[in-house]
């Protein structure tokens, strides 16, 4: 594969927040649909489900606990200020019956706020997780744990 892969990198889209930012917690075994907007820390607890309707989302951080599900109903840009962490056996991708490709689900993850190099992970995908999306994390690492499937095409 010849390098560089890109002559010019795409423009990074940073999260910009309005006056009102709300933290979101989807409790264990619950479901929640989220419209586009500005959000603080978004946490999807064990075996819970979060559905993004589609559009632009400005988020401080996004965390999906074990066996959580994050799905998308339309073209989506997630502009994440800090980091995206998916624990074990998390599913991320198009909602059932929705025809979206990985390039229709964009994750812009700024990260880069760690105190040490070892902690400088902007995106972490846990063991046994399956993720569909395009990730752009120019200021930190992307870590895939064992048996994680990551689709970006």
What portion of residues belong to β-strands? over 45%
* Tally of DSSP β-strands: 15
* Low-pLDDT sequence parts: none
Distance between the termini: 17 Å
Describe this structure in words.
With 153 residues, this protein is an all-beta fold. It has no helices and 15 strands. The chain has strands at 22-26, 31-34, 37-44, 49-52, 55-64, 69-72, 76-80, 84-86, 91-94, 105-109, 121-125, 130-132, 134-136, 141-144, 149-151. The strands form two sheets. Strands 1, 3, 5, 7, 8, 10, 11, 13 and 14 form a nine-stranded parallel sheet that branches. It is globular, with a radius of gyration of 15 Å. The protein starts with 21 loop residues before the first strand and ends with a strand. The relative contact order is 0.16. The mean pLDDT is 90.
SSE diagram, text form:
Layout: E1 22-26, E2 31-34, E3 37-44, E4 49-52, E5 55-64, E6 69-72, E7 76-80, E8 84-86, E9 91-94, E10 105-109, E11 121-125, E12 130-132, E13 134-136, E14 141-144, E15 149-151
Parallel strand pairs: 1-3, 2-4, 3-5, 4-6, 5-7, 5-8, 6-9, 7-10, 8-11, 9-12, 10-13, 11-14, 12-15
Structure characteristics:
single chain, 153 residues, mainly beta, nine-stranded parallel sheet, six-stranded parallel sheet, 0% helix, globular
Structure described in brief:
The protein starts with 21 loop residues before the first strand and ends with a strand. The protein has strands at residues 22-26, 31-34, 37-44, 49-52, 55-64, 69-72, 76-80, 84-86, 91-94, 105-109, 121-125, 130-132, 134-136, 141-144, 149-151.
């Amino acid at each position: 594969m010849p390098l560089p892969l890109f002559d010019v990198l795409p423009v990074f889209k940073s999260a910009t927040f309005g006056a009102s930012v709300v933290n979101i917690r989807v409790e264990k075994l619950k479901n929640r649909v989220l419209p586009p907007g500005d959000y603080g820390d978004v946490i999807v607890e064990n075996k819970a489900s979060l559905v993004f309707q589609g559009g632009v989302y400005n988020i401080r951080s996004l965390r999906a606990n074990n066996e959580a599900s994050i799905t998308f109903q339309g073209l989506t840009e997630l502009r994440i200020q800090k980091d995206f962490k998916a624990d074990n056996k998390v599913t991320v991708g198009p909602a059932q019956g929705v025809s979206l490709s990985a390039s229709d689900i964009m994750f812009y993850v700024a990260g880069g706020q760690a105190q040490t190099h070892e902690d400088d992970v902007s995106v972490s995908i846990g063991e046994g997780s399956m993720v569909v999306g395009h990730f752009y994390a120019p200021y930190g690492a992307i870590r895939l744990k064992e048996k994680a499937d990551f689709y970006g095409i």
